[in-house]
Each structure stands twice: as C-alpha cells, then as structure tokens.
Amino acid sequence: MKNPATCIPPALSQDQLKTLVGVAALAYVQPGEIIGVGTGSTVNKFIEALASMRGEIKGAVSSSLASTERLKALGIAVFDCNEVDELAVYIDGADEIDERGYMIKGGGAALTREKIVAAQSRRFVCIADESKLVRNLGRFALPVEVIPMAARRIAQQFARLGGHAQVRLSGEQPLRTDNGQIIMDVTGLNILDPLAFESQVSQWPGVVTVGVFAHQKAQLCLLGCSAGVRTLSFADPVHSPAP
Ligand code: 5RP
C-alpha cells in the first residue's frame, strides 16, 4: 500500500507562490494599455512574466527606480506619471492585506511612488502570497516616509499611539528613498480603522507618506496558496470621519 503521506502535494515555497501570482496577474493586463507596475520581489515575478506581453502593451508607469530598471532591461517602455492620464490597472504587492483590501506597504521603501501610481489607476490588483493575509493591520512594522528634520517629533507622535518608531538603516546610515527622504518603521500598532489612521498620520507635518493604503486600497487580490491562486474581490470603502 502507498504511504498516504506521498499522496499529499508538496507545499509550494514562498518564492513559488510569488511566481504563481505574478503570472496570474497577466490576465489583468489589457493589450494596448500603459499599466502601473509596483515594486518588490512579488512584482519582480510579474515583471518577468510581463516580458511575454511586451509587444502587446504600450508600456508601464513604474513606482521605483528598481522596477524601472527591470522593465527597461526587458525592453518595456517606461513612462513618467505626468505623461499619462489614468491607468487602467496598477499591479503591486503588499506587506499585509486584510479582508477589506486595506494594506500595509513600503517594505521595499517605495511607498510614496506606489501611492501616487495607485491613485492614478482605476483598479489596484494586489499580488501576494498567503502569508500576507491578516485580520488586522499592524503586525508588520508600518513604514512611513519622513522628512529627516521631523523624525524625532514624528516618533513622539507615534509613541502617543502606543507605537515605537525606528529609522530604517542601510548599513550604518539612514536608508534614503528614491525621493531622498528617510523611512521610519513603526511597531506596536494595531490599526483597527485604516481609513481614519491613514488620514490622521498623513496630516502630521513632515510625513511624506504613511504605508497604510486604505484610501488607495486594492479592488482585487490574487493570493498565492498551495492549492492555487485565490481571487479576493473587495467592495468599495465605507468612509469613516477622521478623528
Ligand atoms: C515595496 C512594497 C512591496 O509591495 C511590499 O514590500 C511587498 O514586497 P514583496 O513582494 O517583496 O514581499 O510595498 O515598497
């Protein structure tokens, strides 16, 4: 008799799950369009897959210098945001996504440009492996892009919310974003009302971008699971007033 354990399909690695959703995202790329492209290891899988459609799309708007380089290396034209009106679709990863399509992003320090391109797009398709799906946002340290002279005061403001903010380093120096600013990673937060939280923190002087994507939420998530790709669709947000 066969050992039952040998009948169970082997679990896919996180890297394989990223490839799975990167390829699945091609179904949301409309020929003849310029598409929005995010940043990160999952998006890198999408960019690799996109090479097969390079002759069918006009090009891409990219959310980082790193993605721009990858796209150009594959012969895909990259446009500036200011050269295009609306984008049909924006495809990007996430550090966390909840069951409403709200996300934490910025693990790759590209959150500001990601939010800009997302805002310019009709539809945000998030691609992620199943480890990114959470009940409440805040387990992943929240990235916030900050003007350096405001770092100390912003850290104090997060402390009042129960958070602990630390400047992200690259070697021994503060990491600099593509925009020349710094990133603070904030732990200890439990973000129950992402819309209100994003509105509140975005107003603090010196905050360039907070890594909560609630106003620019995903409409769809392609979630890589060992059983295959699960497609999660999210309804439009119910706006709650900022405190
Ligand atoms: C970059 C991001 C990425 O989308 C996020 O960090 C997920 O990255 P990965 O696909 O490598 O897990 O927000 O700023």
Describe the protein in words.
It is a single chain. The chain has 243 residues and is of the alpha/beta class. It folds into two domains: 140 residues, Rossmann fold; 69 residues, ACT domain (Alpha-Beta Plaits). Helix content is 24%, strand content 27%. It is built from six helices and 16 strands. The strands form four sheets. The chain has a seven-stranded mixed sheet with strand order 3-2-1-4-7-15-16, with helices on both faces. The chain has a four-stranded antiparallel sheet with strand order 9-12-8-13. Strand 10 and strand 11 form a beta hairpin. The longest helix has 11 residues. The chain starts with 13 loop residues before the first helix and ends in a 10-residue tail after the last strand. The N terminus and C terminus are likely disordered. Ribulose-5-phosphate binds next to helix 2 and helix 4.
